[in-house]
């Protein structure tokens, strides 16, 4: 396929096969409860997404990824799913979902939905059946139940701790306990049971038949488990190697048998449904196993998300991940923000992470989000530079709602307004801060009103007054706003997109990165503060120069 054809049909990216649309797609993550509220109840909904379809098309994205919209008691922001084949009535109906598919497809936008296969809600019919059926029943075997220790089973089977704090085993009153790595309301499935396989094969076909184009797999590394009769202690679990594929709980080689089964379902459709794994694993080599052609096909790379705004770190991460992609035949994924982390505009305004294992921004939030610790303007500037760097890379770019507005983290949410179980259940604050609510605050669409245009009433997580300056309507009127810069970048990305390679161009400076794509398109990012001069006659198609130089902490694109 020629570059001319690519420019004429930007939805067919880097391949002569329309089924490869995902390889270099710009995917926009929507957290539905915080995107747009059409019915005015304070909670975002499916109809709200439908009403913003033109906004999404105007942004220039290729696909929308919807975080969970299923029936849920919201013990974990919708990731406690009570029914995998329905819409939460507070968010709409299946008919609304069908309208969403139609509205986005009519605008050339694909739809990816979240699948949560590691655990269900404790309200799910299968778990309720397990509780009712009792010890030793086939129903209980669909989840991970164990007899308690002690004379009457009054002690947990092991001293394991939940990710959200507190014990990971919960008693059910008959001497047995169930395992939940996350919230108590999220019992883990037993993937050794064929009924669980059938439940999810049915679910994948249900949404594929409705027109869904792909799936994001939550906790993809957690499904397969190997629990001996005598369970190890938490200390023994913590000491186990996580790189050999044999850990009792995480990233087991056996998990890929599940995804080979799923691939057969994906390939029943034309074009095949795509998938991307959320796999937090120990090495890039382990992550690559999720991105094979007979498995999920793509896996999230969170390395840039965890890096400082630093040229050396960015270059090493890009080089390593492109090498992994070449080895698997997949394409790279690039992420700077999502629903689980402090927004990157704020992270880049704080002191560098410098290898600290705690989530960047957690200490700042614990301290009450002191303004004197945040370089607000610098964080915004670096975030936009990093985003333009990312959008120039080969591979898929995953964007999180609101980042196109340059939104910062809301760090000072009152305890009574928080919703994240990590806050309420005693998760390690040094690791997780006070939870993830600060990046899930509903978006501002207007500069005024009860919820800045989010809906007719308030917002389920209160918005700060400073959101008015970041509202879509405000930024829409400013040609140089973050929103309009994203729009220009995404439009140019479609126009310039080419093969999945890059060539580094030496700059003579450790704090400046420059690379060229196969058609000559170049990206120059100045991670330092001193200007970087371009050669005479080099004029950017994106970004601006100051006296012929790339300003500090900025990115420009050059056409080949």
List the helices and strands and how they pair.
Layout (H helix, E strand, L loop, with lengths): L2 H6 L17 E5 L15 H6 L1 H7 L3 E4 L27 H13 L3 E6 L9 H9 L11 E3 L21 E3 L4 E4 L14 H16 L4 E4 L16 H6 L15 H12 L7 E4 L6 H5 L22 H18 L4 E3 L8 H4 L14 H5 L9 H16 L4 E5 L20 H4 L4 H4 L39 H5 L5 H15 L6 E2 L7 E5 L5 E5 L5 E2 L11 E2 L2 E2 L3 E5 L2
Helix pairs in contact: 6-8
* Structural class category: alpha/beta
Helical content (DSSP H or I, runs of 4+): 25-40%
Query: Main beta sheet: strand number and arrangement?
Result: 7 strands, parallel
Which parts are unreliable, with pLDDT below 50 for 5 consecutive residues or more?
1-16
| Global outline | globular
What is the number of helical segments per DSSP (H or I, 4+ residues)?
A: 17
**Which strand order does the major sheet show?**
8-7-3-2-1-10-9
**Ends distance:** 18 Å
Mean residue pLDDT: 93
Strand content: 5-15%
Report the radius of gyration as a whole number of Å: 23 Å
Number of strands: 17
């Amino acid at each position: 396929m020629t570059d001319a054809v690519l420019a004429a049909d930007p939805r067919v990216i880097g391949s002569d096969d329309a089924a490869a649309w995902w390889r270099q797609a710009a995917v926009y993550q929507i957290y539905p409860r915080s995107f747009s509220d059409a019915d005015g109840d304070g909670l975002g909904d499916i109809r709200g997404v439908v009403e913003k379809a033109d906004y999404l098309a105007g942004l220039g994205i290729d696909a929308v990824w919807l975080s969970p919209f299923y029936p849920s008691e919201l013990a974990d922001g919708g990731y406690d799913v009570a029914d995998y084949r329905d819409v939460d009535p507070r968010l709409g109906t299946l008919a609304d979902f069908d309208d969403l598919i139609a509205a986005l497809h009519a605008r050339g936008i694909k739809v990816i939905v979240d699948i949560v296969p590691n655990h269900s809600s404790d309200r799910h019919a299968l778990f309720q059946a397990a509780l009712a059926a009792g010890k030793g029943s086939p129903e209980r075997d669909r989840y991970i139940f164990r007899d308690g220790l002690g004379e009457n089973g009054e002690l947990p089977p092991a001293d394991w701790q939940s990710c959200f704090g507190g014990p990971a085993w919960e008693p059910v009153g008959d001497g047995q306990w169930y395992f939940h790595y996350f919230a108590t309301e999220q019992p883990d499935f037993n993937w050794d049971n064929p009924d669980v396989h059938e439940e999810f094969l049915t679910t994948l076909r249900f949404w594929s038949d409705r027109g869904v184009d792909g799936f994001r797999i939550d906790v993809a590394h957690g499904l397969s488990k190997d629990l001996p009769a005598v369970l190890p202690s938490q200390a023994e679990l913590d000491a186990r190697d996580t790189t050999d594929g044999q850990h009792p709980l995480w990233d087991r080689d056996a998990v890929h048998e599940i995804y080979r089964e799923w691939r057969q379902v994906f390939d029943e459709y034309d074009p095949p449904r795509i998938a991307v794994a959320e796999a937090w694993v120990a090495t890039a080599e382990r992550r690559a196993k999720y991105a094979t052609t007979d498995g999920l096909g793509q896996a999230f790379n969170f390395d840039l998300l965890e890096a400082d705004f630093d040229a050396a770190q960015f270059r090493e991460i890009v080089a390593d991940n492109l090498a992994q992609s070449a080895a698997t035949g997949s394409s790279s994924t690039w992420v700077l923000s999502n629903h689980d982390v402090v927004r990157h505009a704020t992270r880049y305004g704080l002191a560098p992470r410098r290898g600290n294992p705690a989530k960047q921004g957690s200490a700042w939030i614990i301290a009450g989000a002191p303004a004197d610790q945040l370089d607000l303007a610098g964080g915004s500037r670096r975030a936009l530079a990093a985003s333009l760097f990312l959008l120039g890379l080969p591979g898929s770019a995953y964007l999180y709602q609101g980042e196109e507005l340059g939104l910062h983290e809301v760090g000072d949410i009152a305890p009574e307004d928080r919703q994240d179980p990590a806050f309420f259940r005693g998760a390690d604050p040094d690791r997780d801060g006070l939870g993830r609510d600060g990046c899930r605050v509903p978006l501002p669409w207007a500069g005024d009103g009860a919820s800045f245009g989010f809906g007719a009433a308030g917002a389920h997580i209160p918005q700060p007054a400073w959101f008015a300056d970041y509202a879509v309507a405000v930024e829409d009127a400013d040609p140089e706003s973050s929103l309009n810069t994203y729009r220009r970048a995404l439009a140019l990305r479609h126009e310039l997109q080419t093969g999945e390679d890059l060539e580094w161009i030496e700059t003579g400076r450790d704090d400046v990165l420059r690379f060229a794509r196969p058609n000559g398109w170049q990206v120059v990012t100045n991670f330092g503060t001193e200007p970087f001069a371009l050669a005479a006659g080099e004029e950017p198609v994106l970004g601006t120069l100051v006296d012929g130089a790339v300003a500090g902490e900025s990115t420009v694109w050059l056409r080949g």
